[in-house]
Amino acid sequence: MADSSTFYLILTLLLTCNVYVKGCYPSIISFGDSLADTGNLKLLSQNSTGKAPHFMLPPYGDTYFHEPTGRFSNGRLIIDFIAESLGLMLIPPSQGSNFTISETGLGQGVNYAVAGATALDSSFHEARGVVIKTNASLGVQLGWFKESLPLICSTISDCKQLIGCSLILMGEIGGNDYNHALESGKSIAEVETYVPYVINAIISAVNELIELGARTLVIPGNLPIGCSATYLTMFYGSNKMKYDNSTGCITQLNKFAEYHNELLKTELNQIREDHPEVSIIYADYYNAAMQIFRYPNTYGFTNGALKACCGGGGPFNYNASISCGDPLSTTCAQPETYLNWDGLHLTEAAYKFIFKSLFEGSYATPQFKSLCPTLKLQLMGGLSSSI
């Protein structure tokens, strides 16, 4: 349900649309999962009883925030680097209850992403015997956003202005539709049949946001999940898996991710044809990350790209029974030299590298810097020297 905090957050976006400069964005509206969640699951979890989830414990957040914030990393995420590059404050979670206009600042934005979220509603997965613990699918998140609009938009025109002047981040979303199913024991072949449904859910959300007034949307593809410490551990020793000799990643899973990405790009091209007035930016997370998996030492990831910095031991320092944050887990001394943070998620250093590849480099289509030539990359001082 929308609350007063969401009202104030979106009201600030509406006010700053008046100073919108073509090509850049005074606000960000974000949807997605743990790759973009800046604290929603943490806030939702505080309403439940029991011990604190592992991601609410140190060493999460230690590198930058010096405390857990609900981000599934040791520091900032890609969305944080985007906000900083646009001169915005870090985007707060929509479920927060302590934000006011003076605290958030004008034009900051709002983030609906929730860790564990799926693109498809939970009913799809439950019908296939897969339990979804986080009831915050893309459709649910979009519902939260739409519930907020009548509170602050006096006219349809105002609502379109609010959404149209914002940069919309659509994910990453969809990865958990596959993660939950694979972790439940579904075969890769069976989960592959989910892909068209997942893509349809993403495209439907994009089209709905365009109808609401969105004019610039960033839609990321899937990461190379065959390089994830989670899956390398899950399938460790299996004679059914083939590995890329140059990276050590699982070939079948990376081809799976590429299938998702190719189908997504095809559908995004159709939206571009249908809505030439809208900027549809495909963010190539897969190939941006593959740079590191292929040449980790070249980019400063001297402790490799496959082993987790924080985890419960094993060949990839990942143990499903001992999560990062568990008293029995261990944490590396130099997380900036690791790509993988906790088995499934990445370190701040890796997210910073991917951000630069996407928003300053050539791994976005069309290139983001062509749409926002005044991108304030000077705020990212030392970025080049640190990756």
Describe this structure in words.
The structure is a single chain. By secondary structure, the chain is an alpha/beta fold. The protein has helices at residues 4-16, 40-45, 78-85, 101-104, 122-126, 138-152, 156-164, 175-183, 188-192, 195-212, 229-234, 251-274, 285-294, 348-359, 368-371, and strands at 28-31, 109-111, 167-170, 216-220, 279-283, 310-311, 330-331, 364-365. The strands form two sheets. Strands 2-1-3-4-5-8 form a six-stranded mixed beta sheet. Strands 6-7 form a two-stranded antiparallel sheet.
Number of strands: 8
Average pLDDT rating: 88
Order of helices and strands: HEHHHEHHHEHHHEHHEHEEHEH
Annotation field: number of helices: 15
Strand content: 5-15%
Counting helices, strands and paired strands, the structural category is: alpha/beta
Q: For the record, give the distance between the C-alpha atoms at the N and C termini, rounded to a whole number.
A: 41 Å
Low-pLDDT stretches are: 12-16, 18-23, 98-107, 376-387
CA-based shape: globular
Give a quick account of the main beta sheet: strands, pairing sense, barrel closure: 6 strands, mixed
Query: Helicity level, as a percent range?
Result: 25-40%
Strand order of the largest sheet: 2-1-3-4-5-8
Q: What is the alpha-carbon Rg in Å?
A: 20 Å
Q: How does the SSE layout of this entry go?
A:
Elements: H1 4-16, E1 28-31, H2 40-45, H3 78-85, H4 101-104, E2 109-111, H5 122-126, H6 138-152, H7 156-164, E3 167-170, H8 175-183, H9 188-192, H10 195-212, E4 216-220, H11 229-234, H12 251-274, E5 279-283, H13 285-294, E6 310-311, E7 330-331, H14 348-359, E8 364-365, H15 368-371
Parallel strand pairs: 1-2, 1-3, 3-4, 4-5
Antiparallel strand pairs: 5-8, 6-7
Helix pairs in contact: 1-6, 1-7, 3-14, 10-12, 13-14
